[in-house]
Amino acid sequence: MRHLSTKLLAGTVAGTLLVAAAAAQADRSEWPSNFTVGTASQGGTYFVYGSGWANLIADELDVSGGGEVTGGPNQNLALVHTGDLALGLTTMGPAAEALAGQSPLAPGVPMDNVCALFPMYETPFSITALSSSGIESISDIPDGARIGFGPAASTSDTYFPAILEELGVNFERRNGGWTDLGGQLQDGLLDVIAFAAGIPIPAVSQLEVQTDVNIIEFTEEEQAQVLEAFPVAPFQIPASTYSTLEEDARAVSMWNFAIAGCDVPESFIYEVTKLTMENNDKMRNVHRSAETSIPENIVHNTVLPFHPGAARWYEENGHEIPDDLKL
Questions:
Q1: Where is the signal peptide (predicted)?
Q2: Which pLDDT does position 24 carry in this prediction?
Q3: Domain spanning 32-122+255-325: CATH superfamily
């Protein structure tokens, strides 16, 4: 009798495992055969973070995928909304504008097929010039200065020109990838680069190795003026970020979130969120700014609805999603 019970138990366990395996297989059958993460230009943090995150997903979940160079947050919102990309990276300012139909890439078109996945990091707005230029403060930037603002329609290009205009700076506007603009600064073709990117910015780190640079902070008055006029928060760039800095540098910042098409299968996004949120050590290996890519920081998204797959993981793990951010 005991022998029979053992057999029955073994059969029950085996049957349960087969059912579970079949369910898992059925779940995966809805997954995309491949995916692409929209990043930004090479030499910027988005490219490093997004490409590394894509590789982590591909390796751990056994799905073909990778990062793609794009124009940055605004373009990523548009490409995810249309379904041309499954995943992307964006900042909260452009996300709010896109949802309201105010994207510079598609005026009047509300991008409502974009859902939030997880918090990435804050994007500080920082300014870099060659030490040889003599520019040590924002007020030192000469009239007509040639300033590189990153890729056209990027977060930096959307907000930084307006921020500098608010502070009374007159300039010639230049666009391009961060690596290219860094080279132009070093060659004397630009006077200043105005970066909005996660730190450390690879292009700045590279410049530090090759030449002497000044990383220019906001004064208290300038910071207060910008906080009043734009959807940004106060920020301190830690002195440990760059060898050039001897003390923390005052700045402003905007939060970044990973995004997905709201129609991307829930089970896939659940596993992507689970992988990302439960492996912060691996994310920090991708880029050290991922130190803040943790569930507690979901509170910094007050704009985009969370993807149902992401929301399910958060709520299963004790993190509340406000009703107005649920689909």
A1: 1-26
A2: 46
A3: Periplasmic binding protein-like II (3.40.190.10)
